[in-house]
Design goal:
It is built from 13 helices and 14 strands. The chain is α/β, with parallel strands linked by helices. It folds into 2 domains: about 110 residues, no CATH class; about 260 residues, Aminopeptidase (3-Layer(aba) Sandwich). α5 runs antiparallel to α6 and α8 crosses α13. InterPro entries: Peptidase_C15-like_sf.
Length: about 450
């Protein structure tokens, strides 16, 4: 998920239907809280919840067997009689939704409908049904605004797999963390899926075998497409326990999002700039990436961070139907000032970031945050950001007003992308310097 500058035409139109890599933010955006501030408690539905009543989300929930999630969660809330019990219930309910989505994606349990198992969208829309139920809940005991916010945070983390990453100890098995994203640009088409989220569900808790026969355990999480959550530290909070030194420290990580049509991109450089394109909450941020207080970081804050994934080897290793590109381009303000300049071969010394290889949206930002945390902790492992191809509907199913929520091409493309993500991950573990010596 990223904003890319490109010429207008067929290729540009394809980008606009999928991912904002370097698009200009609309001039009129709603006023919103400053980055990192808590959102006010309100009885009004959130922007994301308002989309729930549309035809496509309701059909996705019904055809996946997830239509009962919000109602069941709300019934359970009604039986809770204390804040402590509410916290335990909400935390477990969030984790239960994540497990249910992972199980469905990996073929365990009932399919629950005719929607393909690999679909990431039921998790997204069911979570919103739960957040709506929690927001509307009127407990029979006093619940402060801060306590309700705490419950909402527990629900978010649990239902995204962020607090259930369990890496093995010891030296026999390699440890890998992979992250994906929610669907986004849903005002244009509420049917959209995000292949990075689908890959996260398919990979969570699985093992892959390297070319030398060594096993690696993969643990995953997904993140919201919201500027404010990133400013508040959701990425660092999730990754920090697994980046710290210890017997369960990660051996390789990659953040993943949806990028350009027809190819994977290994983003060589990440930039410290937010370009302002509206997120799923219709909020905009144009500023230097804010680093949350209380987490390890590099000072002064660098304008650029760099991947340590084995990009050169991965770009030449066959991993599936899509080409894998080592993307070195950035946009910078050169040292001394002036207008932004596109650099095909990376940043020049002393320059100020305006877009990394992954653009200036949240995919660039998650790559920047993860690699900045890596550098702050002096973590010497392969890590960086991977962009997947754009997931598109079939040729006869492009109108969101009349189109079906799925079609054979849509499923086939998502399955192919997920399969190649697994192959790229396996290849990275097989060729990364230092991995096999551990």
């Amino acid at each position: 998920m990223r904003r890319i500058r490109t010429s207008v035409g067929v290729f540009g139109a394809a980008l606009l239907t999928a991912a904002p890599l370097a698009l200009t933010a609309p001039s009129a955006t709603a006023a919103s809280p400053a980055a990192g501030t808590a959102r006010p408690t309100t009885a009004a539905p959130t922007v994301e919840e308002q989309r729930l009543s549309q035809r496509a989300p309701q059909e996705i929930l019904r055809r996946s067997g997830f239509a009962d999630v919000a109602g069941t969660f709300g019934d359970g809330l009604a039986r809770v009689h204390s804040y402590g019990a509410a916290k335990r219930y909400v935390t477990e309910a969030g984790r239960g939704l994540w497990r249910r989505a992972v199980d469905r994606a990996q073929g365990r349990g009932p399919q629950g409908g005719d929607l393909s198992r690999d679909d990431d969208r039921p998790l997204y829309w069911a979570r919103l049904g739960m957040t709506e139920a929690l927001r509307e809940w009127k407990p029979r005991f006093r619940l402060t605004a801060d306590q309700r916010d705490t419950l909402a945070g527990a629900l978010e983390r649990g239902s995204r797999g962020q607090d259930s990453i369990e890496l093995p100890g010891g030296k026999r098995t390699l440890r890998v963390v992979v992250t994906g994203f929610d669907p986004f640009q849903l005002d244009a088409d509420a049917r959209r899926s995000n292949p990075s989220g689908a890959a996260a569900l398919a990979l969570d808790g699985t093992t892959v075998r390297t070319s030398s026969g060594r096993l690696a355990r993969v643990e995953t999480a997904v993140f919201p497409v919201r500027w404010a959550d990133f400013a508040a530290g959701t990425v660092e909070r999730t990754l920090l326990p697994h980046f710290r030194r210890g017997p369960r420290q990660v051996d390789l990580f990659t953040t993943i999002s949806q990028g350009r049509p027809g190819r994977f991109d290994l983003e060589r450089t990440n930039g410290a700039w937010r370009g302002g394109y509206p997120d799923n909450a219709r909020e905009s941020r144009t500023e230097t990436v804010p680093v949350p207080k209380g987490v390890p970081t590099v000072r002064p804050q660098p304008q650029w961070t760099t991947t340590t994934l084995p990009y050169a080897r991965l770009a030449t290793t066959p991993t599936g139907p899509f080409p894998v590109r080592d993307n070195t381009a950035v946009t910078e303000i050169p040292a001394g000032g002036g207008a932004p300049v596109e650099r095909p071969d990376g940043p020049t010394p002393g320059s100020t970031a305006r877009a990394g290889g992954g653009g200036d949206y949240l995919s660039n930002e998650i790559g920047y945050r993860a690699t900045l945390l890596r550098d702050a902790l002096k973590l010497k492992v392969p890590g960086g950001h991977l962009h997947t191809p754009v997931l598109q509907f079939g040729a006869g199913n492009t109108d969101p007003a009349t189109g079906a929520v799925t079609d054979p091409d849509f499923v086939r493309n998502r399955t192919a992308i997920t399969g190649q993500v697994r192959s790229i991950l396996t290849a990275a573990l097989s060729v990364a310097p230092g991995i096999m010596e551990k």
